[in-house]
Amino acid sequence: MTKSIAVPPNRVVILETAGVALPLEIARPFVALVPAYDLVERKQIEAIVLGLISLGCIEICCVGPEATALHEALDMLMLDCKCEHVITTSDVAEAEVIDYFLWTAGENPSSLLALVSSHPELIQAIETAVSTPRD
After folding, report:
1. Which residues pair with 111 in a beta bridge?
2. Count of domains for the chain
3. How much is the pTM?
């Protein structure tokens, strides 16, 4: 089930899971937040990343204990497919990744895709970050 969160002033985070069809209606370009909490999830993201890029993803932010390994795997994939223009970032610290994803990544595109629906704690962190006034 797709859910959206409005991000002021005129942006939106689309919440989805990595295992479903990618949202074709997403505004392009967009930035993706992908979870890497275990090896299975990391491999699942590796399998769909070229689909994200073909839809217009310009930056992929990795979060979770396997984030560094996923980041490294994606960098190699970017070299192999000649997609060096796509930026990859990672951090195991959820708050830092979410802050970067929401307010910095991709130079603030109108659409943000968070493939984190299977991680309620990440959804809560995104909702909190969006509703918290920024300095």
Report:
1. 12, 30
2. 1
3. 0.94
